[in-house]
Specification:
CATH topology of the largest domain in chain B: Vanillyl-alcohol Oxidase, Chain A, domain 3
EC number (chain B): 1.1.99.14
Organism (chain B): Lacipirellula parvula
CATH architecture of the largest domain in chain B: 3-Layer(aba) Sandwich
Helix content of chain A: 40-55%
Number of strands of chain B: 19
Strand content of chain B: 15-25%
Domain FAD-binding PCMH-type (chain B): 39-218
Shape of chain B: globular
Structural class of chain B: alpha+beta
Strand order of the largest sheet of chain A: 1-3-2-4-5
Distance between the termini of chain A: 69 Å
Shape of chain A: globular
Radius of gyration of chain A: 22 Å
GO molecular function (chain B): FAD binding; glycolate dehydrogenase activity
Structural class of chain A: alpha/beta
Radius of gyration of chain B: 22 Å
Distance between the termini of chain B: 28 Å
Strand content of chain A: 5-15%
Oligomer: heterodimer
Protein name (chain B): Glycolate dehydrogenase
Number of helices of chain B: 16
Number of helices of chain A: 25
Chain lengths: 443, 461
């Protein structure tokens, strides 16, 4: 283990750039909760600087504070000085892990199983996904839940179990061919990233993404087996594992041959666009990462860029509301594009969601590591959703969809509300259009 | 940790609970600063009272332990006013944030000191009323801090500063006693005006815990415009000519090119990054008057050589423009590692000369200065873009700063228009006030806080 303090190894001016103006404070969900300065972005940056200066040790309190941060990046949107909080947080968390100041064997085992094993091996992940799917399909889960066996689990696992998302098989490789061509001659050639969580839990979103791209003149290339983008690793302080995954992903594509590399998950996209920074010291991969970063687009960003075609069929009086994924909004600064896509849908009543820019509490593994704060934020989000009276909630990130869906299922006011990705609504509208026109031409 | 600190913290915790008394190294490190980047000192202990009685308890306890007291809200001050001194107890009022009463019949609102400034304005807005003072940090600054520093903002030209809206306040004195100063009467001349003495006293005379504020009717209409210039002088001339034409807009904000670029980098509101300067102008009031004044202001700007005058299409665009301007100081931090903000005000007739002097001082000392400010009220914020790690450069900053202060005072200006003296400006206060006035100020401090318990080391050398 190297003795170099990760925070010390950072360009010091990044830490210095925070001049304490406090503009970040009102945007921070954890400061809002505690009103303690150390639970604010400004306070956390100060703590990091103290560590970099050698005035403060990486203590348990420091570690807890870094873990209490959602990493929602709302502070980066608010920061006039442009402080790169995301990178600072990743390095601070990295330093916490390197020093091993928190967590017993259970936490280490959990992190190892997930970050080092599961999320690094896509085949294994699909295998686990299939078993989970069987477990859920065969009714074992509901039987066990009815028997009350779950009460025997330790609290953290109980929270996890209750929140276990429903696996949706078949996965993307069975739904999307390696190369799919649009009906008309292709105007663009794009690569589609199917993700790991998206692939297991929301593979229909991947199919919908491919369909929408095809309907807008894109040839879609989708490697059958893809690696996790590594965002989960980077956000949790495992920067080396994140670099390893980034290299594997770069190896999968000949970047120059694509007009765009499409991601449909806000959290992944936010990380995927920063491969160059992540691989800054890697002489072999850095140049390719730069080219890659330039091509990565969120699907909504890309569709607006190429002038997405409005579907011609009406959905008919559906009230839709949109919740911005933090990493799409604050990480990638994509605010208007998903709304622009939703506005293309004929007959849809798009209603604004209060505090759409406020984290829902999903935040990667946050709902597992900080169940209490996560639940508070989810409750706040559900209140706002209920106030819209919408029957569809759209959001562009699987973590948010999982969290909100999970909350809505248990809330009688919202049990009927559908959670989906904006591209799913577009894909459905295009499909309706096709069936309406049918083989005989116009209806 | 010294024995005194331990027992001070223990006594406070016994009464208020351990959750509201912080002594961990990690906590002390993050209450060491305010919005002034270069100043820093860890306190001994941080406490979060929830009522005036609890604040009084904190003062009495600190007094017994002879611990200095520093009051703090959100820590957005820009003169080091809430930076602690060694061994200090930080009394943090950000949890005392209730709105106590909005009285629409008397056009007043009473709030606790920790109430966020913007919340007050938003609450007033629901009743067709308006709280005009709007410091750049209004989204997070607390009213207690605004009162302590007598904060200004973008609307000072027409509406004045915090002091003009404080009708009454409750304060805990250094003795631990609680006083109410002022009332809801528009006219009141009973005795010395102690209320005004507390406004702008920077936490050195008492701890303000509640404030009664005057509200004004929400203007029916407003128009916000952006004028761009190829020279700084033309922008200055526009301001002089608008005032000379007997128009008092609510806002006349000036940004130089450096500031324009940094703000645009952050806010993306379409500021002309090639312009040497811009003016953000706003007039509000009766729709007819607003239309007339806006047209006249646009004409004056054009006559002074503005290359373009753009009017915000709607409230949303106007608000975006004003928020962008409010972020100017922080946005300048994009350029260099350390940002040092100044706050000088000169009589408006001296503005053009002052802007030119600042530019010359930057050139003379080889420094980078971004200048912006409330041009309509003569309040400028020359901001040094520098690096505190470079001792030589910091020395040149000091030289330039002294020069700017000298010039400010020579033309009848003041060393601070809205940020307060705090730590940052105390070397210059005597220079501005002269011996007699300076001693009078010290007499007042000595009378109200004979033991020097409240925010010692601030204002006075």
């Amino acid at each position: 283990m190297s003795e170099l303090n990760l925070l010390k190894s950072l360009d010091y001016s990044v830490l210095q750039q925070c001049m304490h103006c406090g503009m970040c404070l009102p945007t921070c969900p954890t400061y809002d909760e505690t009103k303690f300065e150390r639970s604010s972005p400004r306070g956390r940056i100060r703590l990091m600087r103290e560590v970099a200066d050698g005035r403060l040790d990486v203590t348990e309190t420091f570690a807890e504070e870094m873990s209490y941060c959602l990493g929602c990046l709302a502070c980066t949107t608010a920061c006039p000085a442009g402080v790169d909080y995301g990178t600072l947080l990743e390095n601070a968390r990295g330093e916490v892990e390197r020093r091993g100041v928190i967590g017993g064997p259970a936490r280490r085992l959990f992190r190892w199983a997930n970050l080092s094993v599961l999320f690094r091996h896509p085949r294994l992940m699909r295998a686990v996904g299939r078993s989970l799917w069987l477990y859920q399909k065969l009714g074992v889960q509901s039987a066990l839940r009815k028997l009350g066996v779950m009460k025997l689990l330790p609290q953290q696992l109980r929270v996890m179990e209750a929140a276990t998302p429903t696996v949706v098989a078949p996965f993307s490789n069975a739904r999307i061919k390696r190369i799919e061509m649009p009906a008309a001659p292709a105007k663009y050639r794009v690569a589609l990233l199917t993700g790991c969580v998206q692939d297991l839990l929301f593979s229909p979103i991947n199919r919908a993404t491919a369909d929408v791209l095809l309907a807008n003149g894109c040839e879609v290339v989708t490697p059958r087996l893809q690696y996790c983008c590594g965002s989960l690793h980077a956000h949790n302080g495992e920067l080396e594992l994140a670099r390893d995954l980034a290299r594997k992903n770069l190896d999968l594509y000949d970047v120059e041959k694509f007009d765009a590399i499409i991601s449909n998950a806000g959290g992944c996209g936010s990380h995927l666009k920063k491969y160059a920074e992540l691989l800054h010291h890697d002489s072999q991969y850095h140049a390719r990462a730069v080219a890659w970063d330039r091509k990565v687009r969120d699907v909504s960003e890309w569709l607006v860029e190429i002038g997405c075609r409005a579907p011609q069929s009406a959905a008919g009086g559906v009230r839709v509301t949109y919740d911005a994924s933090c990493h799409l909004l604050h990480g990638q600064k994509i605010a208007a594009q998903p709304l622009a896509l939703l506005k293309l849908l004929p007959g849809v009543d798009l209603v604004p969601l209060a505090e759409s820019d406020w984290c829902c509490g999903s935040a990667g593994v946050y709902s597992i590591t900080q169940p209490e704060q996560s639940a508070k934020l989810l409750g706040r989000k559900l209140e706002h959703i209920a106030a819209t009276g919408a029957s569809v909630l759209a959001s562009g990130n699987p973590g948010c969809l999982m969290q909100i869906e999970n909350g809505m299922r248990r809330d009688p006011r919202l049990a009927h509300v559908r959670a989906c990705h904006p591209v799913e609504l577009l894909a459905e509208a295009y499909r309706r259009e096709a069936s309406r026109i049918g083989p005989g031409g116009a209806e | 940790m010294s024995q005194t600190v331990v027992s001070l913290a223990e006594e406070l915790a016994q009464e208020l609970g351990v959750d509201r008394v912080l002594t961990a190294a990690e906590d002390l490190a993050v209450y060491a600063y305010d919005g002034t980047a270069a100043l820093r000192q860890n306190p001994a202990c941080v406490v979060f009272p929830l009522t005036t009685a609890e604040v009084a308890f904190c003062v009495q306890t600190a007094r017994r332990h002879r611990a200095p007291i520093v009051t703090r809200g959100s820590g957005t001050g820009l003169s080091g006013g809430s930076v602690p001194m060694e061994g200090a107890l930080v009394v943090c009022l950000n949890r005392m944030d209730r709105i106590i009463e909005l009285d629409p019949r008397n056009l007043t609102i009473e709030v606790e000191a920790g109430c966020i400034t913007q919340t007050i304005d938003e609450t007033a807005g629901k009743h067709g009323l308006f709280y005009p003072p709007d410091p750049g940090s209004r989204k997070i600054s607390t009213i207690g801090g605004n009162v302590a520093e007598n904060s200004g903002g973008l609307r000072g030209l027409k509406y004045g500063v915090t002091r003009d809206y404080v009708m009454g306040l409750e304060a805990v004195l250094a003795s631990g006693e609680v006083v109410w100063l002022g009332n809801k009467c528009v006219k009141d001349v009973a005795g010395y005006n102690l209320r005004d003495l507390f406004v702008g006293s920077e936490g050195t005379l008492g701890i303000v815990t509640r404030v009664l504020l005057k509200l004004v009717p929400l203007p029916q209409a407003r128009k916000t415009m952006l004028a761009s210039y190829t020279t700084l002088e033309a922008a200055g001339e526009t301001v002089s000519n608008i005032i000379a034409a007997k128009i008092i807009p609510c806002t006349l904000e000036f940004l130089d090119q450096q500031t324009i670029r940094c703000v645009e980098d952050f806010a993306h509101v379409g500021l002309p990054t090639e312009a040497a300067a811009v003016l953000i102008m706003e007039t509000d009031g009766h729709p007819h008057v607003v239309a007339e004044e806006a047209a006249a202001m646009a004409a004056i700007a054009s006559a002074c050589g503005a290359i373009s005058v753009r009017t915000a299409a709607d409230d949303a665009e106007a608000n975006k423009l004003l928020s962008a301007r409010r972020a100017a100081f922080s946005a300048l931090a994009r350029v260099r590692p350390t940002t040092i903000l100044e706050d000088v005000t000169v009589p408006r007739s001296e503005l053009a000369g002052m802007v030119a002097f600042i530019a010359a001082s930057a050139a003379k000392h080889g420094l980078q200065i971004g200048t912006f400010g409330h041009m309509g009220d003569g309040n400028l914020h020359p901001t040094y873009l520098t690096d505190e790690r470079n001792a030589d450069e910091m020395h040149r900053v000091e030289l330039s700063l002294a020069e700017i202060v000298d010039r400010t005072l020579a033309v009848g200006g003041t060393i601070t228009g809205e940020h307060g003296v705090g730590l940052a400006k105390k070397p210059y206060l005597k220079q501005q006030l002269g011996d007699n006035s300076y001693q009078l100020l010290k007499l007042v401090k000595g009378a109200l806080d004979p033991d020097g318990l409240l925010n010692p080391g601030k204002i006075f050398e």
